[in-house]
Amino acid sequence: xxxxxxxxxxxxxxxxxxxxxxxxxxxxxxxxxxxxxxxxxxxxxxxxxxxxxxxxxxxxxxxxxxxxxxxxxxxxxxxxxxxxxxxxxxxxxxxxxxxxxxxxxxxxxxxxxxxxxxxxxxxxxxxxxxxxxxxxxxxxxxxxxxxxxxxxxxxxxxxxxxxxxxxxxxxxxxxxxxxxxxxxxxxxxxxxxxxxxxxxxxxxxxxxxxxxxxxxxxxxxxxxxxxxxxxxxxxxxxxxxxxxxxxxxxxxxxxxxxxxxxxxxxxxxxxxxxxxxxxxxxxxxxxxxxxxxxxxxxxxxxxxxxxxxxxxxxxxxxxxxxxxxxxxxxxxxxxxxxxxxxxxxxxxxxxxxxxxxxxxxxxxxxxxxxxxxxxxxxxxxxxxxxxxxxxxxxxxxxxxxxxxxxxxxxxxxxxxxxxxxxxxxxxxxxxxxxxxxxxxxxxxxxxxxxxxxxxxxxxxxxxxxxxxxxxxxxxxxxxxxxxxxxxxxxxxxxxxxxxxxxxxxxxxxxxxxxxxxxxxxxxxxxxxxxxxxxxxxxxxxxxxxxxxxxxxxxxxxxxxxxxxxxxxxxxxxxxxxxxxxxxxxxxxxxxxxxxxxxxxxxxxxxxxxxxxxxxxxxxxxxxxxxxxxxxxxxxxxxxxxxxxxxxxxxxxxxxxxxxxxxxxxxxxxxxxxxxxxxxxxxxxxxxxxxxxxxxxxxxxxxx
Length: 703
What we know:
Layout: H1 20-24, E1 32-34, H2 37-46, E2 50-55, H3 60-70, H4 73-82, E3 84-89, H5 94-108, E4 115-119, E5 125-129, H6 143-156, H7 158-175, H8 189-198, H9 215-228, H10 231-246, E6 260-261, E7 269-270, E8 273-274, H11 275-292, H12 295-311, E9 322-323, E10 326-327, E11 330-331, H13 339-343, H14 348-357, H15 379-386, H16 390-409, E12 416-417, E13 420-421, H17 422-438, H18 442-458, E14 460-461, E15 464-465, E16 468-470, E17 473-474, H19 480-497, H20 500-517, H21 551-566, H22 569-586, H23 594-604, E18 608-614, H24 619-630, E19 636-642, E20 668-673, E21 676-677, H25 684-694
Parallel strand pairs: 1-3, 2-3, 18-19
Antiparallel strand pairs: 2-4, 4-5, 6-7, 8-9, 9-12, 10-11, 13-16, 14-15, 16-17, 18-20, 20-21
């Protein structure tokens, strides 16, 4: 370890990394290593256990543990004397995180970040936890106390520790085995019934505090409503979306959603903002808008996407990972208000309307008399109580929002993690493209295309997608999530633009995904590629949805879609394999694979294939495309064969498309349902009627 005489007292090896999270720890007195063979070699040579710390740059309790313990020279001395210390960015190495999270959860009964694992020099976990305070508090042992106890046990009770490590490794090997994939349509009733049982009828969402938005589960309920017509499935979604949009979870001035709520009413959020949350939550609001036509849902979609385009966009067009919860050492300081701060920046009418509408009071609803903005009453009621007209209240509120947004912009912003992650960009490209097409926002579609090009230009090396880009340097090879999410984004971009290049790229990368992550002897894809690093198990297979959907679930959905689009039997066979894998695991976790349940539904239920044919600038063709984009069609794939204008046609990828021709010299739609083709139509009115029939809830029949 070296010292710096000017700004920092300490500088460790992490100064040479690109991850924002690792760089945050580069000036700790802890002798940190990045994940490397060098670190494990040192542990073997010195016969020391390894302290493995995993987190990410916008994790609040990661910051707390760093400040309390990793910046503490006394604790650092204990770490440096008795351990080889490794720091991992979970967003850069999800494979390492997945394996050791499961191991620590088995040992301690819970997991989360910061993840603190004690492992042997050969990588086996024998003890672990999450956040440890520097001294005993919160019912948790002090970190120094834990370190000394582990060091003593390593010297005096090593055989017991190694036995524990071997048991953990054996269990992880067993959990990666195949499951029975036998299933029928009734399998989807199980997650629906479970979601009904755990639904919070008072405040929306599922379970109690802390409450996460769970977009994968909301997606499943919309899909289930589409297939069954059961209104409770839709009502659970709309109620949750209504409450979230009004509560403190939503940033009412800048748009976008915070990570989760610490209470059961969505009022007090953990203030960090993640790119994947903006992508996944905005998609649910978009689909709910397509079904209900509620203009509030459209507003939330646009404000959320606009937030990312404004604050998380790289100059070249890709998207950064996240914004922190803290600024100036306090969580949420950037977002909260006092009545005095509001009054001093607004007119009297503006201030009175704003204070009443967002529930800002002298006592506050947060720390030290500060308030988190949340809609407490309808604006009509606020206007009536204040004795102003509804029009004046609307005008005053809009002016106040614009003014306070500008005021807030002068505050110290939370730290931004400017790492570009391929998987998360894929999720956001998908939502951005779909919203742009459905809401007639060509700027969104253009931004999605620009981001996709940046990922292909900067994050694909020698035919392999890379995991992330930071400080102009890419990290190691991408994982299943990177391929699955990006392929899904490219497919949505194709169906939003009908630019053949995106379908070609999706098809190419899907084939690469199969090559790299398939388990030829069993079902399911691995998280890491065959040539990736071997961890506790041969390779981990992602099963369940977490903060982002399971890579296997998204891969399955993409392969099902591509199979229907292209007729590629190799991809269809792999889709079948993945569907069986997901079906087997769905029986073990009723709500843990809701994204997988949507893929299973696509596979088991009748699907619709639509091919449009015409000149690219034909108004009727454009009108047909618009009808498609505006409808909620979860079991539908669409292609477009353009006969004139710019862009490539799809015949090279899909030869059968040559048989699709214009009828009577007009734009024509070919529609097939459940492997039966209807008579082609070239009337926008007729096509609209067909789309309305396909999108009618319950049309697919009971489960």
